Amino acid sequence: MIKEVFKPASIEEAVKLKSESIYYLSGGTQINWAPAQADRKIKGKPAIEKVILVQDLLSREIKKQGSDLFIGAGITLQELIDSSQTPGVLKKAAGYIASRNIRNMATLGGNIAANRPDSYILPCLIALKAEVIIADEGKMRVETYIREEKNNLITQIILPRVDGVCVIDVALKSSGAYPSVTTAVRVSDKDVVVAIGCVSDHVIRLKEVEPGIMDGSLRGESLALAVADRINPKSDLAGSAAYKKYISGSMIAHLVALSQKGAARL
Ligand SMILES: Cc1cc2nc3c(=O)[nH]c(=O)nc-3n(C[C@H](O)[C@H](O)[C@H](O)COP(=O)(O)OP(=O)(O)OC[C@H]3O[C@@H](n4cnc5c(N)ncnc54)[C@H](O)[C@@H]3O)c2cc1C
Does 73 sit in the ligand 1 pocket, CB within 6 Å? Predict the structure, then answer.
């Protein structure tokens, strides 16, 4: 339970207040969610009792600068969906969070920092080569932020101009279920990115299969098998490890085929 709240007047003040036992609070949908707190207890992490309110300090605007799109970290997922500047594939990813009430509160910065292994949005951001600006360390790839389990204050998300076609998909057992797998693939003439959630502690990029997709040696069944071989998911309520391996492989092979056919271009 939250027992102490800090309301800094500036981003600099927020960064100074931060410590191991004090957490940033943006939309609060993850921090205040009882199952998320229970999960911390299971993992032996301390309960969150002190928070720093940051959403009012963070921009919610989307601005084009040169060929990059700068998105304020305080933007809610619903505002992201409603903006005409947001790429369609990112709108789709945010829309997978089914409750509009949650989307009205949850922020994009909070979704990245929450670093959930089953995030719908993180695979898409990784495939789009998104970067974050963090208050005290500058710019870094979203991929690095989550891999290194950073907790620095995210102020902006940058979507650089990328080529090719980006497609996403999720495996759900029912409309209200947690996902069994979340995936995103982007294929262009110059590069391939494959990202996947629900099969590890974090959303991961499957760099090992990307060169094979690029040179055409991995496709269809061989690609599905290579993906299944590369991941090591755990069995849980969302599906057995064998099911997650199978569905991850077939979804990624399907998405690669779709993007190579030129599904909606970026
Ligand atoms: C019913 C329900 C369903 C949900 N379903 C999903 C789902 O399907 N997929 C999914 O991914 N999430 C889901 N969530 C979790 C949550 O809603 C999202 O991850 C949301 O985007 C988190 O954003 P927030 O602003 O509410 O984060 P908060 O709860 O405020 O914070 C989340 C974490 O990020 C940190 N943080 C917040 N903002 C920043 C920032 N700008 N910089 C650095 N650190 C920051 C906090 O310290 C905290 O550790 C669900 C939540 C609920 C209650």
Answer: yes
**Whether residue 155 sits in one domain with residue 125:** yes
Taking CA atoms only, the protein residue closest to ligand 1 atom 49 is 114
Average pLDDT of the residues of the chain: 94
Nearest CA to ligand 1 atom 4: 97
Secondary structure in 3-state letters for the chain: CCCEEECCCCHHHHHHHCECCEEEECCCCCCCCHHHHHHHHHCCCCCCCEEEECHHHCCCCEEEECCEEEEECCCEHHHHHHCCCCCHHHHHHHHCCCCHHHHHHCEHHHHHHHCCCCCCHHHHHHHCCCEEEECCCEEEEHHHHHHCCCCCCEEEEEECCCCCEEEEEEEECCCCCCEEEEEEEEECCCCEEEEEECCCCCCEECHHHHHHHHHCCCCHHHHHHHHHHHCCCCCECCECHHHHHHHHHHHHHHHHHHHHCCCCCC
Domain range for 233 is 165-260
Are 139 and 176 contained in the same domain? no
Tell me the pTM.
0.95
pLDDT tens string 121-176: 999 999 999 999 999 889 999 999 999 999 999 999 999 999 999 999 999 988 78
pLDDT of amino acid 174: 83
